[in-house]
């Protein structure tokens, strides 16, 4: 499949996938900021996005449920800090 791409493009693709966890944690960090500011339906949508990212990263289901059920961006922020540390 990678044969369809130039060497340069193959390198970019490989680096992307090798850094995917870091990219997902960064995305989760950005969602924390948005959650602090959002209200109503937008906030619900952001929590769904955060849930999806946490699942992709491999956060245990019980932890995801706890963070989401509390509806507290500060809890999500502490999780992000933990993942970065």
Task: Describe the protein in words.
By secondary structure, the chain is an all-alpha fold. The protein has a domain at 43-85. Helices cover 82% and strands 0% of the residues. The chain is built from five helices and no strands. The chain starts with 6 loop residues before the first helix and ends with a helix.
Q: Nearest-angstrom radius of gyration?
A: 16 Å
Q: What is the number of helical segments per DSSP (H or I, 4+ residues)? A: 5
How much beta, percentage-wise? Answer: under 5%
Helix content: over 70%
Structural class: mainly alpha
Number of strands: 0
Query: Quick one: overall form?
Result: elongated
Task: Summarize the helix and strand pattern as letters.
Answer: HHHHH
Biggest sheet overview? none
What is the terminal separation in angstroms?
Answer: 35 Å
Poorly predicted runs = none
Mean pLDDT: 93
């Amino acid at each position: 499949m990678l044969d369809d791409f130039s060497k340069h493009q193959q390198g970019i693709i490989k680096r992307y996938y090798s850094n995917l966890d870091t990219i997902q944690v960064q995305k989760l960090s950005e969602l924390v900021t948005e959650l602090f500011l959002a209200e109503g339906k937008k906030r619900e949508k952001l929590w769904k996005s955060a849930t999806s990212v946490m699942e992709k990263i491999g956060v245990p289901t019980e932890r995801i449920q706890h963070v989401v059920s509390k509806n507290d961006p500060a809890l999500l922020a502490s999780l992000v800090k933990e993942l970065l540390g």
